[in-house]
Amino acid sequence: MVHRATLLSLLALGAVACGCSAPGARVHLGYMQSQVSGELALAPSSGLPLTSPLAIDVESGLGLDEPAPSVLVRAELDAGPVRVTASAFQYSESGSGTLTSSFGNIPINADVDSDLDFVALKTAATFDILDLGPVRISPGIGVDLFDMKASVTERLTQTTEDVDELFPIPMLFLQGEVEVGPVGAIVDIGGMDVGYGDFSGTFIDIEALVYYEPVEHVEVFAGYRWISLDADGTVDDQDFVADLVIQGWFLGGGVSF
Questions:
Q1: Count of alpha carbons within 13 angstroms of residue 218, beta-carbon side
Q2: Are 126 and 13 in contact (CB under 8 A)?
């Protein structure tokens, strides 16, 4: 079976391929360095509910305190007043720490090895309600797919607890752009408070970049991505809480058509 992260990456590359074949397209490929902060909590398998003191800081408690490199893919298709944007990146990091409270069936003060994989795929469709040439504002709707897998293993007993969730999040979306000659800046803002079944959460996704076109149809860019997810739900009959921020800078190059 293809891992969900691989599937999401293929979808992102498919979006890029679509952009390459159409007029009014922009395709970016870059290097990204991101870092995670926040808290995770997992109730024991006995069915006991979570309480707030169970939350564990992912940096100090799980040892996930180092930035992680990844590849960023971004594409934008301009079809008149309608625009389609897609971007994707993956955060993947391992660390070691000492639990400040229990995590699932792993007890407090246990020494653990931790892994966190997080894939973010964003797609959005917007409509230009204001286009004055150098300034453009385009609201719309989007979907963020967040694929998160956190794995925590107690060193002594090799007991492993996992939080493996795919979050498909519809979002209200706003894109703004300013372009003056060969220099421009783009800001994407998305957010939504959702709840369905035993899952609920608040999600915010902000991406900002500046670009420069040294020669026609060739761009270099740099920017920053900030994602906040505050979610709770149930996985394998265990309640979980994920209150995380994934953020980092990126730079790279691309082409426009």
A1: 3
A2: no
Q: Tokens 């991505």 — which residue?
A: 225
The token duo for 66 is 């180092």
226-246 core/surface letters (b: 16 or more CB in 10 A; e: else): ebbbbbbbebeebbbbbbbeb
| Whole-number Å distance between alpha carbons of 3 and 79 | 33
Gyration radius of the chain's alpha carbons: 20
H or E, element range at 201: strand 199-215
Instruction: For residues 81 and 202, give the distance between their C-alpha atoms in angstroms, rounded to a whole number.
Output: 30
pLDDT in tens, the chain (257 residues): 334 544 444 444 444 444 444 468 999 999 999 999 999 999 887 665 555 457 899 999 999 999 999 999 999 999 879 999 999 999 999 999 999 999 999 999 999 999 999 999 999 999 999 988 899 999 999 999 999 999 999 999 999 999 998 888 999 999 999 999 999 999 999 999 998 878 889 999 999 999 999 999 999 999 999 999 999 888 878 889 999 999 999 999 999 88
Note if the pTM is more than 0.85.
yes
Question: 193: Cβ–Cβ under 8 A, 6 or more apart, which residues?
Answer: 201, 202, 203
C-alpha closest to that of 244 among 91, 73, 20, 111? 91
Distance CA(123)–CA(85), nearest Å, equals 6
Q: Which amino acid is at 125?
A: A
Contact by Cβ (8 Å): 75, 89:
no
Return d(Cα 234, Cα 119) in angstroms, integer. 20
Answer whether 139's CB lies under 8 Å from 173's CB. Answer: yes
